[in-house]
Amino acid sequence: MRHLTLLPLLGALLLLAACDPYNAPPEIKLARPETGVFVSGDPLLFNFSEPIDTASLAIRVWPGEKDLEGNLPPNATPRLDRCTVAASPCGTTTLAVSDDGLQATLQLDPADLGQPDSPLIVEILPGLKDREGFTRDATARFDIQFAPQTTVGGAEFQDGVYYLVGTTSKPIPTVLRLVTQLIALDDGRVAIAGGEANPIEGAPRNTTNIEEVVIDTSNDGFTIFGTGTLSQDAKGDRFLQSEPFQIEILISGLRVILNDAIMQGKIIKDEDGNDYLDGTLNFSGGTLYIGDNPTPFEGDSAPLAGGFVPPDKVPPGGPDMCGEVCGMIVQCVPPEGFPDPDFCAE
After folding, report:
1. What is the pLDDT of residues 68-89, one digit of tens each?
2. Which of 22, 41, 99, 180 has its CB 3.0 to 4.6 Å from that of 194, i.e. a possible disulfide?
Protein backbone atom coordinates (compact mmCIF):
# COMPACT_ATOMS: atom_id res chain seq x y z
CA MET A 1 0.00 0.00 0.00
CA ARG A 2 3.03 2.26 0.20
CA HIS A 3 2.70 3.32 -3.46
CA LEU A 4 -0.75 4.75 -2.76
CA THR A 5 0.76 7.55 -0.65
CA LEU A 6 2.40 8.90 -3.82
CA LEU A 7 -0.84 9.32 -5.70
CA PRO A 8 -1.73 12.82 -4.38
CA LEU A 9 1.78 14.06 -5.14
CA LEU A 10 1.76 12.53 -8.63
CA GLY A 11 -1.66 14.03 -9.29
CA ALA A 12 -0.47 17.48 -8.27
CA LEU A 13 2.58 17.22 -10.48
CA LEU A 14 0.49 16.12 -13.45
CA LEU A 15 -1.92 19.02 -12.84
CA LEU A 16 0.94 21.53 -12.74
CA ALA A 17 2.43 20.10 -15.90
CA ALA A 18 -0.91 20.47 -17.68
CA CYS A 19 -1.34 24.14 -16.70
CA ASP A 20 -0.12 26.79 -19.12
CA PRO A 21 1.53 29.91 -17.75
CA TYR A 22 -0.92 32.80 -17.36
CA ASN A 23 -0.99 35.08 -20.39
CA ALA A 24 -2.37 38.50 -19.56
CA PRO A 25 -4.60 40.20 -22.16
CA PRO A 26 -3.34 43.39 -23.82
CA GLU A 27 -2.98 46.53 -21.73
CA ILE A 28 -3.80 49.88 -23.34
CA LYS A 29 -2.17 53.27 -22.90
CA LEU A 30 -3.04 56.55 -24.57
CA ALA A 31 0.02 58.46 -25.76
CA ARG A 32 -0.28 61.98 -24.41
CA PRO A 33 1.16 65.01 -26.23
CA GLU A 34 4.28 66.65 -24.82
CA THR A 35 2.34 69.88 -24.36
CA GLY A 36 -0.21 68.05 -22.20
CA VAL A 37 -3.13 69.14 -24.40
CA PHE A 38 -4.61 67.62 -27.56
CA VAL A 39 -5.08 70.14 -30.36
CA SER A 40 -7.84 69.71 -32.93
CA GLY A 41 -6.37 67.62 -35.76
CA ASP A 42 -4.03 65.61 -33.52
CA PRO A 43 -4.36 61.83 -33.95
CA LEU A 44 -5.04 59.72 -30.86
CA LEU A 45 -2.38 57.02 -30.50
CA PHE A 46 -3.13 53.95 -28.39
CA ASN A 47 -0.17 51.75 -27.44
CA PHE A 48 -0.64 48.08 -26.56
CA SER A 49 1.51 45.96 -24.26
CA GLU A 50 1.67 43.21 -26.89
CA PRO A 51 0.62 42.78 -30.53
CA ILE A 52 -3.14 42.73 -30.91
CA ASP A 53 -5.46 40.93 -33.28
CA THR A 54 -6.52 43.86 -35.47
CA ALA A 55 -9.97 42.42 -36.10
CA SER A 56 -10.72 42.46 -32.36
CA LEU A 57 -10.26 46.22 -31.92
CA ALA A 58 -13.51 48.19 -31.68
CA ILE A 59 -13.91 51.79 -30.54
CA ARG A 60 -16.88 53.84 -29.44
CA VAL A 61 -16.99 57.60 -28.75
CA TRP A 62 -19.30 59.11 -26.14
CA PRO A 63 -20.12 62.64 -24.98
CA GLY A 64 -17.99 63.48 -21.96
CA GLU A 65 -20.83 63.70 -19.44
CA LYS A 66 -20.76 61.36 -16.44
CA ASP A 67 -23.20 60.78 -13.62
CA LEU A 68 -22.53 61.46 -9.94
CA GLU A 69 -20.81 58.07 -9.65
CA GLY A 70 -18.42 58.79 -12.51
CA ASN A 71 -20.21 56.43 -14.90
CA LEU A 72 -21.88 57.05 -18.23
CA PRO A 73 -25.49 58.17 -17.69
CA PRO A 74 -28.08 55.48 -18.49
CA ASN A 75 -29.50 57.61 -21.30
CA ALA A 76 -26.12 58.40 -22.90
CA THR A 77 -26.03 58.07 -26.68
CA PRO A 78 -22.73 57.38 -28.49
CA ARG A 79 -21.52 60.02 -30.90
CA LEU A 80 -19.75 57.22 -32.79
CA ASP A 81 -20.92 53.63 -32.33
CA ARG A 82 -18.50 50.74 -32.81
CA CYS A 83 -15.82 51.67 -35.29
CA THR A 84 -13.43 48.91 -36.41
CA VAL A 85 -10.43 48.85 -38.74
CA ALA A 86 -12.41 46.81 -41.27
CA ALA A 87 -15.26 49.36 -41.23
CA SER A 88 -12.98 52.41 -41.32
CA PRO A 89 -13.68 55.13 -42.30
CA CYS A 90 -16.56 55.31 -39.84
CA GLY A 91 -18.26 58.46 -41.04
CA THR A 92 -15.47 61.02 -40.88
CA THR A 93 -13.41 59.00 -38.38
CA THR A 94 -10.58 56.67 -39.39
CA LEU A 95 -9.03 53.83 -37.39
CA ALA A 96 -5.83 51.94 -38.26
CA VAL A 97 -3.46 49.50 -36.55
CA SER A 98 0.29 49.29 -37.18
CA ASP A 99 1.70 46.20 -38.89
CA ASP A 100 3.33 45.04 -35.66
CA GLY A 101 0.00 45.30 -33.80
CA LEU A 102 1.44 47.50 -31.07
CA GLN A 103 -0.30 50.78 -31.87
CA ALA A 104 -3.68 52.01 -33.08
CA THR A 105 -4.29 55.43 -34.59
CA LEU A 106 -7.70 57.06 -34.23
CA GLN A 107 -8.16 60.21 -36.30
CA LEU A 108 -11.17 62.33 -35.41
CA ASP A 109 -12.17 64.88 -38.05
CA PRO A 110 -11.42 68.47 -36.89
CA ALA A 111 -14.67 69.53 -38.52
CA ASP A 112 -16.66 66.82 -36.74
CA LEU A 113 -15.88 64.81 -33.59
CA GLY A 114 -12.36 66.24 -33.40
CA GLN A 115 -13.39 69.88 -33.27
CA PRO A 116 -12.51 71.99 -30.22
CA ASP A 117 -15.60 71.51 -28.13
CA SER A 118 -16.86 69.74 -25.02
CA PRO A 119 -14.98 66.70 -23.64
CA LEU A 120 -15.35 63.25 -25.19
CA ILE A 121 -14.92 59.73 -23.85
CA VAL A 122 -13.13 57.35 -26.21
CA GLU A 123 -13.91 53.75 -25.29
CA ILE A 124 -12.05 50.64 -26.42
CA LEU A 125 -14.68 47.95 -26.18
CA PRO A 126 -14.27 44.58 -24.43
CA GLY A 127 -13.09 41.74 -26.64
CA LEU A 128 -9.64 43.07 -27.57
CA LYS A 129 -7.37 40.07 -28.17
CA ASP A 130 -3.66 39.49 -28.51
CA ARG A 131 -2.44 37.40 -31.42
CA GLU A 132 -2.57 34.24 -29.33
CA GLY A 133 -6.25 34.74 -28.68
CA PHE A 134 -6.13 35.91 -25.06
CA THR A 135 -9.03 38.34 -24.60
CA ARG A 136 -9.43 41.53 -22.62
CA ASP A 137 -12.89 41.44 -21.02
CA ALA A 138 -12.80 44.93 -19.53
CA THR A 139 -13.60 48.18 -21.28
CA ALA A 140 -11.05 51.01 -21.36
CA ARG A 141 -12.19 54.64 -21.39
CA PHE A 142 -10.16 57.79 -21.96
CA ASP A 143 -11.26 61.38 -21.37
CA ILE A 144 -10.35 63.58 -24.34
CA GLN A 145 -10.82 67.25 -25.14
CA PHE A 146 -9.38 69.14 -28.09
CA ALA A 147 -8.08 72.70 -27.95
CA PRO A 148 -8.38 74.95 -31.02
CA GLN A 149 -5.47 75.16 -33.45
CA THR A 150 -5.43 78.95 -33.47
CA THR A 151 -6.97 81.54 -31.18
CA VAL A 152 -6.82 85.24 -30.47
CA GLY A 153 -6.01 86.29 -26.89
CA GLY A 154 -8.67 88.02 -24.88
CA ALA A 155 -12.41 87.48 -24.62
CA GLU A 156 -15.31 88.52 -22.45
CA PHE A 157 -15.41 86.60 -19.17
CA GLN A 158 -17.41 86.62 -15.97
CA ASP A 159 -14.78 87.11 -13.25
CA GLY A 160 -15.53 85.53 -9.91
CA VAL A 161 -15.73 82.22 -8.08
CA TYR A 162 -16.48 78.95 -9.89
CA TYR A 163 -17.27 75.59 -8.37
CA LEU A 164 -15.38 72.95 -10.38
CA VAL A 165 -15.94 69.22 -9.90
CA GLY A 166 -14.13 66.24 -11.43
CA THR A 167 -12.99 62.71 -10.63
CA THR A 168 -9.52 61.37 -11.34
CA SER A 169 -8.94 57.63 -11.65
CA LYS A 170 -5.18 57.66 -11.01
CA PRO A 171 -3.59 56.66 -8.77
CA ILE A 172 -6.88 56.01 -6.97
CA PRO A 173 -10.36 57.36 -7.68
CA THR A 174 -10.40 60.86 -6.20
CA VAL A 175 -13.14 63.48 -6.34
CA LEU A 176 -11.88 67.02 -6.85
CA ARG A 177 -14.19 69.72 -5.50
CA LEU A 178 -12.52 73.08 -6.11
CA VAL A 179 -14.03 76.42 -5.15
CA THR A 180 -11.95 78.44 -7.58
CA GLN A 181 -11.53 82.15 -8.19
CA LEU A 182 -10.90 83.04 -11.84
CA ILE A 183 -9.96 86.54 -13.01
CA ALA A 184 -9.26 87.35 -16.67
CA LEU A 185 -7.68 90.53 -18.03
CA ASP A 186 -8.49 92.16 -21.35
CA ASP A 187 -5.25 90.81 -22.84
CA GLY A 188 -6.31 87.22 -22.10
CA ARG A 189 -4.17 86.58 -19.03
CA VAL A 190 -5.95 84.55 -16.33
CA ALA A 191 -5.18 83.99 -12.65
CA ILE A 192 -6.50 80.91 -10.85
CA ALA A 193 -6.80 80.36 -7.08
CA GLY A 194 -8.78 77.42 -5.73
CA GLY A 195 -9.43 75.62 -2.50
CA GLU A 196 -10.71 72.14 -1.73
CA ALA A 197 -14.27 71.78 -0.50
CA ASN A 198 -15.93 68.92 1.36
CA PRO A 199 -19.56 67.80 1.05
CA ILE A 200 -21.84 68.43 3.97
CA GLU A 201 -23.35 65.45 5.76
CA GLY A 202 -25.73 63.54 3.52
CA ALA A 203 -24.53 65.11 0.27
CA PRO A 204 -22.94 62.98 -2.49
CA ARG A 205 -19.13 63.00 -2.54
CA ASN A 206 -19.19 64.54 -5.98
CA THR A 207 -22.09 66.92 -5.50
CA THR A 208 -22.28 69.73 -8.03
CA ASN A 209 -24.43 71.86 -5.69
CA ILE A 210 -22.35 74.67 -4.19
CA GLU A 211 -24.78 74.82 -1.25
CA GLU A 212 -23.79 71.27 -0.28
CA VAL A 213 -20.07 71.93 0.29
CA VAL A 214 -17.86 73.78 2.77
CA ILE A 215 -14.21 74.78 2.43
CA ASP A 216 -11.87 72.19 3.99
CA THR A 217 -9.95 74.11 6.63
CA SER A 218 -8.50 70.97 8.25
CA ASN A 219 -4.93 69.78 7.78
CA ASP A 220 -6.16 67.79 4.76
CA GLY A 221 -7.40 70.85 2.88
CA PHE A 222 -5.36 71.96 -0.14
CA THR A 223 -5.12 74.80 -2.62
CA ILE A 224 -4.30 75.27 -6.29
CA PHE A 225 -2.72 78.33 -7.86
CA GLY A 226 -2.01 78.95 -11.50
CA THR A 227 -2.04 81.26 -14.46
CA GLY A 228 -3.40 80.74 -17.94
CA THR A 229 -4.89 82.25 -21.05
CA LEU A 230 -8.44 83.04 -22.10
CA SER A 231 -8.84 83.17 -25.88
CA GLN A 232 -11.36 82.82 -28.65
CA ASP A 233 -11.30 81.17 -32.06
CA ALA A 234 -12.51 82.48 -35.41
CA LYS A 235 -16.09 81.46 -34.55
CA GLY A 236 -16.02 83.43 -31.31
CA ASP A 237 -15.99 80.33 -29.10
CA ARG A 238 -14.07 80.96 -25.86
CA PHE A 239 -11.41 78.67 -24.38
CA LEU A 240 -9.42 78.61 -21.16
CA GLN A 241 -6.06 76.89 -20.81
CA SER A 242 -3.76 77.09 -17.81
CA GLU A 243 -0.01 76.84 -17.63
CA PRO A 244 1.19 73.59 -15.97
CA PHE A 245 1.01 73.63 -12.17
CA GLN A 246 1.30 71.08 -9.37
CA ILE A 247 -1.51 69.75 -7.20
CA GLU A 248 -0.88 68.11 -3.85
CA ILE A 249 -3.80 66.16 -2.37
CA LEU A 250 -4.11 64.56 1.07
CA ILE A 251 -6.50 61.62 1.31
CA SER A 252 -6.90 59.75 4.62
CA GLY A 253 -3.20 59.83 5.39
CA LEU A 254 -2.09 59.36 1.77
CA ARG A 255 -0.34 62.11 -0.16
CA VAL A 256 -0.85 62.42 -3.91
CA ILE A 257 1.09 64.81 -6.13
CA LEU A 258 -0.12 65.52 -9.67
CA ASN A 259 2.60 66.95 -11.90
CA ASP A 260 2.17 69.38 -14.79
CA ALA A 261 -1.56 69.72 -14.23
CA ILE A 262 -3.26 71.70 -16.99
CA MET A 263 -6.82 72.95 -16.71
CA GLN A 264 -8.43 73.44 -20.12
CA GLY A 265 -11.94 73.86 -21.38
CA LYS A 266 -14.54 75.65 -23.39
CA ILE A 267 -16.41 78.53 -21.80
CA ILE A 268 -20.13 78.29 -22.47
CA LYS A 269 -23.27 79.81 -20.97
CA ASP A 270 -25.39 77.87 -18.50
CA GLU A 271 -29.18 77.98 -18.34
CA ASP A 272 -29.03 81.09 -16.13
CA GLY A 273 -26.80 82.96 -18.58
CA ASN A 274 -23.67 82.65 -16.42
CA ASP A 275 -20.28 81.47 -17.66
CA TYR A 276 -19.58 77.75 -17.28
CA LEU A 277 -16.30 75.86 -17.81
CA ASP A 278 -16.85 72.60 -19.67
CA GLY A 279 -13.37 71.26 -19.31
CA THR A 280 -10.70 68.70 -18.55
CA LEU A 281 -7.82 68.37 -16.11
CA ASN A 282 -4.73 66.78 -17.66
CA PHE A 283 -1.59 65.79 -15.77
CA SER A 284 1.67 64.24 -16.96
CA GLY A 285 2.07 61.84 -14.02
CA GLY A 286 2.51 61.92 -10.32
CA THR A 287 3.59 60.27 -7.10
CA LEU A 288 1.59 58.49 -4.42
CA TYR A 289 3.17 58.59 -0.96
CA ILE A 290 2.22 55.99 1.62
CA GLY A 291 4.17 57.25 4.59
CA ASP A 292 7.59 58.08 3.17
CA ASN A 293 7.36 55.47 0.41
CA PRO A 294 6.86 57.01 -3.06
CA THR A 295 5.10 55.19 -5.89
CA PRO A 296 5.09 56.95 -9.26
CA PHE A 297 2.11 56.68 -11.60
CA GLU A 298 1.39 57.68 -15.17
CA GLY A 299 -0.50 60.69 -16.43
CA ASP A 300 -4.21 60.83 -17.09
CA SER A 301 -7.10 63.15 -17.87
CA ALA A 302 -10.33 63.75 -16.03
CA PRO A 303 -13.38 65.87 -16.77
CA LEU A 304 -13.45 69.06 -14.70
CA ALA A 305 -16.48 71.28 -15.06
CA GLY A 306 -18.45 73.88 -13.20
CA GLY A 307 -20.02 77.27 -13.27
CA PHE A 308 -20.08 80.74 -11.79
CA VAL A 309 -21.12 81.01 -8.14
CA PRO A 310 -23.17 84.07 -7.12
CA PRO A 311 -21.31 86.04 -4.43
CA ASP A 312 -23.96 85.35 -1.78
CA LYS A 313 -23.48 81.58 -2.23
CA VAL A 314 -19.67 81.43 -2.09
CA PRO A 315 -18.68 79.34 0.97
CA PRO A 316 -16.40 81.28 3.33
CA GLY A 317 -12.75 80.42 3.90
CA GLY A 318 -11.53 79.89 0.33
CA PRO A 319 -8.63 81.67 -1.37
CA ASP A 320 -9.11 85.32 -2.29
CA MET A 321 -6.27 86.43 -4.52
CA CYS A 322 -6.97 90.13 -3.88
CA GLY A 323 -7.40 89.62 -0.13
CA GLU A 324 -6.38 86.61 1.97
CA VAL A 325 -4.68 84.56 -0.74
CA CYS A 326 -4.86 81.34 1.28
CA GLY A 327 -8.19 82.06 2.91
CA MET A 328 -8.49 79.71 5.90
CA ILE A 329 -6.82 76.73 4.23
CA VAL A 330 -3.79 75.34 6.08
CA GLN A 331 -1.96 73.62 3.23
CA CYS A 332 -1.19 76.68 1.13
CA VAL A 333 1.99 77.89 -0.56
CA PRO A 334 1.17 80.44 -3.29
CA PRO A 335 3.77 80.89 -6.04
CA GLU A 336 6.13 83.77 -5.46
CA GLY A 337 4.64 87.01 -6.74
CA PHE A 338 1.12 85.54 -7.09
CA PRO A 339 -1.04 87.16 -8.18
CA ASP A 340 0.38 89.72 -10.56
CA PRO A 341 -0.72 93.16 -9.26
CA ASP A 342 -2.56 93.73 -12.56
CA PHE A 343 -5.25 91.26 -11.46
CA CYS A 344 -6.17 93.29 -8.40
CA ALA A 345 -5.82 96.80 -9.80
CA GLU A 346 -9.00 98.80 -9.46
Report:
1. 667 888 899 999 999 999 999 9
2. 180
